[in-house]
Please model this.
Amino acid sequence: MKLWKTILTAAALVLANGASALAARTDLVIGITLEPPHLDPTAGAAAAIDEVLYANVFEGLTRIGADGEVLPALAESWTISDDGKVYTFKLHSGVKFHDGSDFDADDVKFSLDRARADNSVNAQKGLFAAIDTVEVVDPATVRITLKNPQSSFLYNIGWGDAVIVAPETADTNKEKPVGTGPFKFQNWAKGSSITLIKSDTYWGAPVSLDKAEFRIVPDAAAAVPALLSGDIQAFPFFPDPESVAQIKDDRRFKVVIGATEGETILSINNKKPPFDRLQVRQAISFALDRKAIIDGASAGLGVPIGSHMSPANKAYVDLTGLYPHNVDKASELLKEAGLENGFKATLKLPPPSYARLGGEIIASQLRDVGIDLQIVPVEWTQWLDQVFTKKDYDLTIVSHTEPNDIDIYSRKDYYFNYDNPTFDKIIADLNHTSDEAKRMTLLGEAQKILADDAVVGFLYELPKVGVWDAMLEGFWENAPIQANDLTKVKWTE
Amino acid sequence: MSLLEIEKLSLTIGDTPILSDVELSVAPGEVMGLVGESGSGKSITALTVMRLLPWAARASGRIAFDGIDILAASEDQMCALRGDDIGMVFQEPMTALNPVKTIGEQVAEGIRWHTRASRADAEDRARKMLDRVGLPSAQFPLSRYPHELSGGQRQRVVIAIACALKPKLLIADEPTTALDVVLQAQILDLLRDLVAENRMGLLLISHDLAVVTEMADRITILRHGEVMEAGDTARTLSEQRHPYTRQLAQASMHVPARARTHEVGQDDPLLQAAKPLLQVERVTRDYPGRRKSLLKRAAPTRAVDDVSFSIDPGQSVALVGRSGCGKSTLARMILALDGPTSGTIRFRGEVITGKSEAELKPARRDMQVVFQDPYGSFDPRQKVEKLVAEPLHVLEKKPTNAERREMVAKALHEVGLGPRDMDKYPHEFSGGQRQRLSIARAIITRPKLVVADEPVSALDVSIRAQILDLFAELNQKLGVAYLFITHDLTVARAITDQVMIMHAGKIVERGRTSRVLDHPQSEAAKALVAAAPDLHRAIARRLQEQG
Amino acid sequence: MTAYLLKRLAIALITLVLASMVVFAVLEIIPGDPARLMLGMNASADQVELLRNQMGLNAPLALRYLHWAGGLLSLDFGRSYTYSVPVIDLVRERIVVSLPLALIALALSTIIAIPVGLFSAGRHGRAGDTIAMGAAQLGVAVPNFWFALMLIYLFAVWLRLVPAGGFPGWSAGVWVALKSLVLPAIALALPQAAILARVTRSALIEVLNEDYIRTARAKGLPFRAVLWRHALRNAMIPVLTILGLQFAFLLAGTIIIENVFYLPGLGRLVFQAITQRDLIVVESVVMLLVAAVIAVNLLVDLSYAVVDPRLRSRQ
Amino acid sequence: MTLRFDIPEENFADILVKAFTNRSFLTGFVITALVAAVAIVSFFWTPFDVTRLIIADKTQAPSPVHWFGTDHFGRDIFSMIMVGARNSIAVALVAVGIGMGVGVPLGALAAARGGVVDEAVMRLNDLVFAFPALLSAIMITAIFGPGALNAIIAIGIFNIPVFARVARAGALAIWPREFILAARAAGKGKALITMEHVLPNIVTLLLVQGTVQFALGILAEAGLSYVGLGTQPPMPSWGRMLFDAQTRMVAAPWMAIFPGMAIVVTVLGLNLLGDGIADILDPKSRRQR
Model:
């Protein structure tokens, strides 16, 4: 075997045309799993758009950094009035759009007004809800007045949905995006790849990559061979945690496990019998073996959670001890509920592997306590339609990736069908509370209530698995937002 | 010195012995007839000479051709011999030519291969050769494809291929068996002329003693891979010294003993009053022409053209004609397996044309059929009992199992088979026995009429004689009327009272068998009679020639 | 000849029309409202109704079919829901991957299969035949996607000779582009070659038993010459039939292989479209592939006439 | 395409002797019987319980305990293959059943009636053939939901024209035979003749086609399951196992190798069996005239 490999590899080297021998590499192929539907971040919610364009092609006044912090971007600096309602941004000068036109305050006003207009198709119009007016003071200064103070405003305008576009090209960005970033769009081979090249006119610190190709690799199965064969040199959102151990052993690659804001949960339809009964939901929680689920569905990567809060969050309360894996207890609870003979239910699973794999494991675990789950794999469109919109489901598995989203449990008509006035009150209080300690207490209480009610089966916090060539550096480790910021990425010697 | 000298040739295929100690020789310009029944090894002998045997075959002995040891020759040497010094003509003209190549290509191919002639030269020679075998290039250009030719024409092409390079030896393996008598006579004439012209040796293989007698100077009689007798044709056949020779010759000329012939119709006032069993009145059958385009069709082909005749109860009638004359179509219409385009057919006075299957049941009880192919006419998946009992389907009252077995046993007994044969499958019977089964099936309902379509033409002569006897016997015993469809005049002569000659869809002559065959009136009848090989006549002529 | 041609043509057209009806009907009965799908979850009922009218979804069934079929004829396949570009543009982008892939695979399978078939038929029953046909049997039994996985690990991951997948586009250079089609083409071609070799062999063996082969041998032609000159052409009809079926299979059957190698071809387009419920794309591509299959079958029918003079002269 | 075949005339005992001296048939028969036996045994016994996931044992390499290793849920792959045989065979077999059940009567009808009926059946065949089978199967399962039942239907639909075609061609070769004429002369109707004479004589032909379609069905099920549209968990099937294995080729190649080999061996066995049957019925090895 070894000998053969040596011989064949030698043959391969002879055949290869020696292109790899060049010294400083400036091109990069990055793997992404989902293809963006179009390339305008101000007109669509798909994370794939930001994964390609955010911070690379388009920039906002501010931007979000690798650890979720707010950084200046097109705005060099800003001042905030004492009442917290007036923001004055000083813009960088000498900034040009990729089409050669100059960037100035008019473009900022245009972009923000366009995003919050009545006929706007911006997917996150809520970000701009607080804005009252946008004024051009001079070509390098913009003043934004808010209706009321909003502590998250600078964070909000750092989102991909708030990037600055030029009026001339705003309508064609879907096909041919034109921004101010360090890379400009070159080509989109639909279904295959999107290529960016270095912009010569960039105002900021020059990037070290000349060319970046985002290769679309929809199948987890293809991701590993694509990496191993060297076709793709980086996969920042690697879809196949199972193979991580394998790749870790390969010295050619660096594997970085980071955090996301994704609480992975077994969602339960709280209004549908028998799930409307507390004992049944608790029984499910006792029946779940989180370690097995994390090992089986996420290759052991991921931190168990006991309620809807990221362990990295300051407000996190460890409630994982509330429902330890205990089959007897689960059976007992079911017996109390009069279901000692078990029952049947369906488990609808969206496409991601955490759901499909986790679903099989959970089905097996619940079978041990007499709950017979029929697995129904669904596509995202079906999931959104049947589960999320029509609430036609018993159980499902999904990762809620939005940051600080515990309030979803208080939303009316949310697909959990959960209704608890006490919890709603806490969330309402939270919105009116600015005192940090008080907030922490309230958030702790909220977590406790959700856990006590066993609203859903809390599983684990989704990890961000990044894999890239060991010679590369500058990628984000965590995922405060879904983006592949290439500005600091470079090949080392 | 002989051109071909076969000495002590033995051959096995796998473990099965096929030939043992065969001796045979052909001199230049001589016609050697090789005669035998099926399985006698005559075709294998020919293929051995050509060295075209399956590779499992092992031959020993010696074959010398023109001084070359054939069995020891290399494949290259054989390729040089084949087609150049030895030509071969096969039995089945319909399949002997490559359907995707023109006749010109196929004739020229051998010429080019052996002589390295240019394409033009080879084509020129091919054209001449085709002209010689009776396919003038005006009507039959080289660009014709085989499917555009008739069977007889194709056999001429095969002969042209075989004789293109004027071989020293021509081997003809049953060259006329698939053709009707008139074509047979033409092809035999052609072969005879070609042999004489080029002083070729001809090894003529046939099962038909009459054909061989007409053609061959000397004859070798083969049976089960062994030579029974060999020698001068006329002497061998007239003296019939070997018992097998005698058996063959007598079977070929066999006429069953018929105590009472049935001469009715015009001649017999007593029976004239009786109603005819079958009346065919002005029956015509057209087949739609081929579609020329989406809307147009060629004019329809008329297979049967305004035919009328009748058959009386107990009468035995032959319907004789060349292949394609419409006799089988007519038979199918009589059997109500096909409907006429116009005209009516009455059976026992009732019209049977245009009737539903249910209405036909009573008629079917009294009318049965015997087919030509003893192999194809039985469903191999069913046992004899079920097969022979099949016509009982038309009985009004379904017989019980016991009754059925009894009826089958009786029918089998009548055709000379035993009741134990009932539980066998058809493949356990020989060809002759199967034809007996076929007859048993036909008589089980005690029909008044049996239509027999070439019932003995697939059988070896000795078997054929037995089956003809059986037909004659049943005719006497059961009083069943026959309609024999045949192209073989000896069969007609042997067991029929009357003969109808059919030509191009019409019945052109009808009369007492002996009268029509001895003194044919119509052109068609004359041609048939003239072409039909006749062993008596052939031997007589040979003897006469030799003085 | 013309009658034969016209009949085949008429049959092809009838099949095409029936197929379009089936496609239309199947997509009609699919649960889910395309307008709702296009607008997403937050659209109001009025908006959906408006779009339904715009898309002509409220017109009578027959009218809608005619409109749709008319669009197909003028290559107007509509717009993709997910990419919101004309479907024809997507198809144009993808077909430059799928068609070359199918053609390479077809060529590869023919180049392998015909000589193997000839070799085997010429040595009917002997060791060479047994070995070749044993290998062919194995080739038929191997699922092509599994074979593809094995190829990827051998040639792309282990030896790093060719890319593991993806397609750089023809603009990256013909050689580079072809290189990324090599493995998929092999994965597709080998099982097909196995089938074709078996068909070629059995067709040849059947032909070799024909009387006219004996006639040709009796002419003095050596066996090899007979095999090439007489047998091969006569054996072409079953071989052509299988070739026709294979082209159809290859063009559409790339669906799994294109997924394994993440090639942006028609197969993956349709697969993606199915999972994304982009029905316009699905129906257009399916119709296109069906038309291709029918066209290839027609071509095969016509090639019969070229090979076989009996069909040609049929009046 | 015209179909030419001869009807075997041996009786059962002869055929049996021939069958068991035919290398192809024998190999195919042994493999097929083995696979079938494994599937049956799996109902009563497997080395490990495949319904229990033991995550702690996941992706273990082949060992004396787990002969073929374990999968990503710690299930024994050997046991999975045993149970998977059941589902793979069931899907393919029922699909063949659908194809035969609908296709053979259609083909026989077309051959018996001819004319318009024949034309209609043939056009219907053309229609189904015009749809690339796998693509359409994917479409059907994607639209009506993935699962074994829909996979069966999708594969079964495409078996219908195959059997219709073979039955029709076979029947057309039988109808001009003299024994059919004899039956007609005995007053039997077309339906009765079809039942009594035509079908029994094309059974072997259908059997050969059946093994081929069976093998193709196993491949098709594997293909559908491989793209996630066939058999659904927790039911194991070979294609499903490959689906699970595709992301773990590097880490646990045995997960892909063994189910893949199970498919190859089974399909090979079936094809050899079909070849063997066809061989036994080969006209050349039989009576000479």
